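Q&A log
Question type: sequence-to-structure
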Amino acid sequence: MSTPRTASVVGGGPAGLIAAEVLARAGVTVTAYDRMPSPARKFLLAGHGGLNLTHTEDRDGFLARYGDSAERLAPMLDVFGPADLRDWCAGLGEQTFVGSSGRVFPRSFRATPLVRAWLARLADLGVRIERRTRWTGWTDDGLSLTGVDGQETEVLSDVTVFALGGASWPRLGSDGGWVGPFADRGVTVAPLRPANVGLRVGWSDTFADRFEGTPLKHVELTVRGRPGVQGDAMVTRAGIEGGPVYAIGAAARDALDADGRCVLQVDLRPALTVDQLAERLQRRRPKDSTSNWLRRTLGLDPVGIALLRESGASALPTDPREMAALVKEVPVVVVATMPIEKAISTAGGIAWSEVDDALMVRRLPGTFVAGEMLDWEAPTGGYLLQASFSTGVVAAHGALAWLER
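Response status: OK
Response body:
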């Protein structure tokens, strides 16, 4: 009889657990290690907002969400794409549906039933999950792991899949502690940086006191002439956040890196041109205050009007065309991103040049990586989870091919 093949999966998020499942289905004896008391902590947190699993956008549009990493991720999405992810959910008893925006959610709108069914499946496949166990590096022959009692253990296996995430929400398990050990082995790791994160703005106390927690509805945000992103943004005490803010995050980081500041252009009425706005603004009545003028002719709400006043002008323009131009491009000076601990995801990670097409680390034969450990980023909307699942499946396939060799 042949010796059973063994695999260690380090990390208990979606990328790690799907890799463990693929390996176990192929007959490999799998042990997964997670430093938290229970796996999939961040996945469960995402479920509090409805668990946006993936998206039904056409392939070209979908790939474009991954920016510079689209070419590397494209074949992985072909291996395990949105349709495959939906079928996988159905196999766990969780049917999915498509929302009005094209986003895909489980019908239960929650992560807990899905995770419960998934862990039961993994147990049936013989996957052992060692909780409260932290990977601390390599020994001469295997992995060094530390349990809750502080005792170090050496683990030997035929292959290893790492899926330790980035560095966002460290209290949920991924703290970026893997960067040092990989870098010590000569693996190039781009610095981990916050992605899908709020931006810091130096609001006046008056504005922050009154409008903290107020949405800027149906606006368009632009940075440095890049394509604008429409949606609802949220004013916070320290700045601004929300879907369109996250989507322009990479451009904002580039501007901050170059100049130390970033000017965010806010279009308060993206559906109208400057000419159309100016035509409406010409209907000002003699006794209208500036606020009433803007409210009556353009339908601006108090937060929008206050944002115009925050633009830095000593006085708002009275000329209809000048006011229209300001409404279309309200300058908001961003001074920094929020810290990585408050980010939804991270940019940076192991450089693509360090891994082959099967996601094996070239310097570490038999070692594969998946998920946010790799240097890619994407906006929210299902793109993050989809790529995590896809890379986990590809890494597992690579590990199986390595075992066959």
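Response note: Residues 309 and 316 are 7 Å apart (CA to CA).
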